[in-house]
Design brief:
The protein has about 150 residues and is mainly α. The protein is built from 2 helices and no strands. Helix 1 (about 10-60) runs antiparallel to helix 2 (about 65-145). The longest helix has about 80 residues, at about 65-145. It is rod-shaped, with a radius of gyration of 35 Å.
Length: about 150
Amino acid sequence: MAKFTYRMQNILDVKYKLETQAKSAFSAANAKLMQEEEVLSALQKRKKLYELAAKSLMKGNINIKEIKENKRAQQAMDYAISEQEKTVKKAEEMVYQAREKLNQVMMERKTHEKLKEKQFEEFKQELNMAENKSIDELVSYSYSNNQD
């Protein structure tokens, strides 16, 4: 019996490898985004602690030096948070680009899989036609031998 071989199987194999690479790149970009968001969250929590400390410094005995230090710390946290928000935006953009690349690679792979399926269906039809032809030849040979 004939065996089906897809002529562009090596291209399909490359598409599978590209898809695997794109999936891992997407996963890495997503992990980086989550890490950056955790850093941002930690900075925001620290800022809230400074704000709470500022409120407690305003009660009771007022120490101007501690209040100024706390104010500088809050300003430093504001700057760090704004920088981290920029980093998170960049990480989100990287995730978006990785997702787009993954979608593109998946579409290319699916296209080649559909081509392979189409060629396999054509192969089955040709095989079926060849089988029908040999059956017809066998029947006509048997019929002609019975006539004699």
